[in-house]
Amino acid sequence: MDAEDDLFDSLLTLETSFYQQGYNEGLNDGLRSGTSEGTQFGLQTGFQRFVSVGILQGRCRVWKELSNATHSSSNPADDVVPVGGGRSTKQLQVLTELVTGIPTENTEDAVDEYESRLKRAKARAKVVARLLKDPTPVRLEEDVVQVLGRDEEEIIENATGLEPVEEHNHVHEDTSDIRAAMEIEIS
Amino acid sequence: MPIKQVHSIPAHVDRIWNLAPHPTLPLLAAATSDKSAQIYSLNTYFPVAQLDGNHKRSIRSVSWKPKSGSNSEVVLATASFDGSVGIWIRDSERYVQEVGSTGDGGSIGLEEWEFVASLEGHENEVKCVDWSCDGTHLASCSRDKSVWIWEADEDNEEFECLAVLQDHTQDVKHVAWHPNEDLLASASYDDTIRLWREDDDDWVCSGEIIGHRSTVWCIDFDKATGEGEARLVSCSADETVRVWSRESITGNTAHRDIPSTFRSDPISENWQQEAILPQRHSGPIYAVSWSGQSGRIVSVGADGLLVVYQEVKTGEWVVIAEEEDAHSVFEINTAVWSRKWKSTASHGQEGDAEKAAPNPEEEEIIITGGDDGNINIWEVTFQT
Questions:
Q1: Cβ–Cβ of B123/A97 closer than 8 Å?
Q2: Which range in A45-54, B31-40, B353-362, B373-382 is most confidently predicted, on average pLDDT?
Q3: Is the CB of B121 less than 8 angstroms away from the CB of A146?
Q4: Chain B residues within an 8 Å CB radius of A137
Q5: pTM to 2 decimal places
Q6: CB contact at 8 A, B232 and B244
Q7: CA geometry: angle at B339 spanning B333 and B343, to 5°?
Q8: Which among B60, B161, B202 has the least Cβ separation from residue A130?
Q9: For chain B, which residues make up each domain, given as ranges?
Q10: Which of B4, B15, B175, B332 could cross-link with B139 by S-S, CB 3.0 to 4.6 Å?
């Protein structure tokens, strides 16, 4: 008798069991795709963020070698960038320290530290590049830190091959501020 | 009404953005919308020079380099919407006579000033430029949220960028230097005012003033503070004019070998609100100026109102003069105090004998510029 009861008991909970089955399937699918998408996103973000750091570190090394070379070179005909003096050395030193040893964990503090350091580093890279008279723009992953002159418009590799956007057509974030919109003065 | 308009100069442009009187000479520079800076004589109110041909968009701000020591050149910096700052020098050998010594400015013809340098670097419109009190540093700020500090060489031809300061989170509208310290203040669309100073060869943000509820359009320092003191006035789109004073500076105890990125004791200043000036404006207030002569403050804004305030007791201000529609129906963009150069041709009333004639050295004028393209000169008549 008991065996027969067990056999047909499941007929009484068909809905819930189908629901449960579907739920489990969905959950597992979600876990799988979530993990793979998350890993992808993490890799992408990690790459973008730290390739910028790497670029800056690379520039620092080149600048350091450049300023060392100029210091030791006594031949004025050498094709090296003239150093901006003691000030540039100091700035370069600060910049190097800023981009070295940035924490790579995924904690709130580490991310904040990364962001503040990178912001400061970008600004300082502008200063150093100007001091050393290096006209090549510091090209980071997400944008180009413009250096000397704004004619260096080879910024974004535009896949469509269209001309770079004219500087007059700025979409100004505070156009709700009428005054600011006037200040832009689309000419 | 204790304020009267004594003159109006038509600049023949769409808009005057900014005005700057020279610290020692009777010259007035005007930043205009027709891509040029105009220079006027404050003795004759006639035009002296037109600085054009180099900027590609409106000039938003002008600033005179303070004369220092042996350097007697007349140098003007112009900040433009084209993203660059221009440096112009008056050829002092060509124009030997000081401005205003000729009776009729019109017949001389305009002077040609030399464009000596263009400071590039900002990513978009430069909103303001200002020289430090000793003329060694030049600060510029822009819609790209950054404040740049430059240092000039002897000839004003080579400018070195000392710092790119990115702490503001929005468009920076105005920069102003302290009258004697190496302290810079900047005002921004992000509702804050930031203070910057040099900390061991590195320019850092040493303080932040939070309180305004909208864009801070303009700031000006009190020129009469004592040693180590600092006060500044700010005006905002929130229709208030506020005075702030520095309570203390801390930090920067000797940590010489540790670079500033890791310093645990950064220099920091504590600023507090000292007063909110009596409410008069009914629209964004675009400019405010603190007189170095009389200590009075003038404010102008979008409502066309010109208001003059006086401090009766530290922290307590009263309105002593108001003028509605100072530029008819137009918004007023700038207001500055200046000493009075042009003496009044005739003192009409005979019965003035018992009143002591105001000392021309102490008299001052207010100069305003607006969207009507006019430069108006105002005098606050003395109460006796």
A1: no
A2: B31-40
A3: yes
A4: none
A5: 0.80
A6: yes
A7: 115
A8: B161
A9: 3-251+263-380
A10: B175
Measure CA of the first residue to CA of the last residue in chain B; give whole Å.
14
Mean pLDDT score of chain B, rounded to an integer?
A: 86
With beta carbons under 8 A apart, name residues in chain B contacting A177.
Answer: 189, 215, 237
Judged by CB atoms closer than 8 Å, whether chains meet at B161 and A94 is answered as no
Any idea what DSSP says for residue B112? -
Chain A positions in Cβ-Cβ contact with residue B286 (cut-off 8 Å): 179
CATH of B3-251+263-380, one of 2.40.50.90, 2.40.50.140, 2.130.10.10, 2.40.30.170: 2.130.10.10
Q: From chain A, pick out residues whose CB is under 8 angstroms from the CB of B202.
A: 94
Q: Which amino acid is at B340?
A: K
Who contacts B125 (Cβ-Cβ below 8 Å, separation ≥6)? Answer: A183, A184, B57, B60, B80, B81, B82, B83, B142, B143
Tokens of B102: 């000729």
> What CA–CA distance (Å, rounded) separates A146 from A4?
80
Chain B neighbors of A130, CB-CB under 8 A: 121, 160-161
Question: What would the pLDDT profile of A104-159 be if each residue is shown by its tens digit?
Answer: 888 999 999 998 899 889 888 888 888 888 777 777 766 544 444 443 344 433 34
Provide residues of B within 8 Å CB-CB of chain A. 33, 57-58, 60, 81, 83, 120-121, 123-125, 127, 143, 146, 160-166, 170-171, 189, 201-202, 215, 237, 259-262, 284, 286, 302
Which residue in the set B81, B146, B261 is minimally distant from A94, CB to CB?
B261
A112 touching B (Cβ < 8 Å)? no
The ipTM value here is 0.71
**pLDDT score at A160:** 47
Cα–Cα distance measured from residue B374 to residue A130, given in angstroms and rounded to the nearest whole number:
40
For residue B189, the chain A residues in CB contact (below 8 A) are 174, 177, 180
Chain A interface test: which of B149, B160, B217, B258 (most A C-beta within 10 Å): B160
H/E element, B298: strand B297-301
Q: CA of A166 to nearest chain B CA: how many angstroms apart? A: 12
Of how many residues is chain B composed?
A: 384
Closest CA to B23 of B134, B128, B158: B134
Q: Return the number of CB contacts < 8 Å for A and B.
A: 76
Looking at this protein, which amino acid is placed at residue B129? V
User: Is A150 part of the contact surface with chain B (CB cutoff 8 Å)?
Assistant: yes
Q: What is the 3-state secondary structure (H, E, C) of chain A?
A: CHHHHHHHHHHHHHHHHHHHHHHHHHHHHHHHHHHHHHHHHHHHHHHHHHHHHHHHHHHHHHHHHHHHHHHHCCCCCCCCCCCCCHHHHHHHHHHHHHHCCCCCCCCHHHHHHHHHHHHHHHHHHHHHHHHCCCCCCEECCCCEECCCCCCCCCCCCCCCCCCCCCCCCCCCCCCCCHHHHHHHCCC
